[in-house]
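User
Here is a favour to ask of a fellow structure person. I am asking you to supply a protein in sequence and structure-token form. Please set it down just below, with no commentary around it:

Assistant
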Amino acid sequence: MTGITWLSLVKEVPAPLIGDIPLADKWGHMLAYLVFALCLAVDSYRVRVSSRVLYIVSLMLPVVYGGFMEWMQLYCPPRSCELLDWVADCIGTLAGVGLFGIFHVIHLHRKANKDLDKL
């Protein structure tokens, strides 16, 4: 979250971080929020938060935070508030929570199989 805040509000993102990749800014947003949402989901799982709360928090917090960071950029020239950046944040969040969901289902399936093997 600290890294996202710094990258969102710094006057200019260092050139080596962006490079000449097409839509590098949007890819960066997606990757940052994928990691953010994935970390939230894993940490929530580790502290045994209910699945419903885990998925709601892991989806909503990054989406709201991404919108807040875009809004804050209005007050940090030369940065600008872009709807497509927030959309990229949302896509990254969905990907992160989706990735966690896949691993969560696999983990639960393996755990159930181990329990059956004990019988």
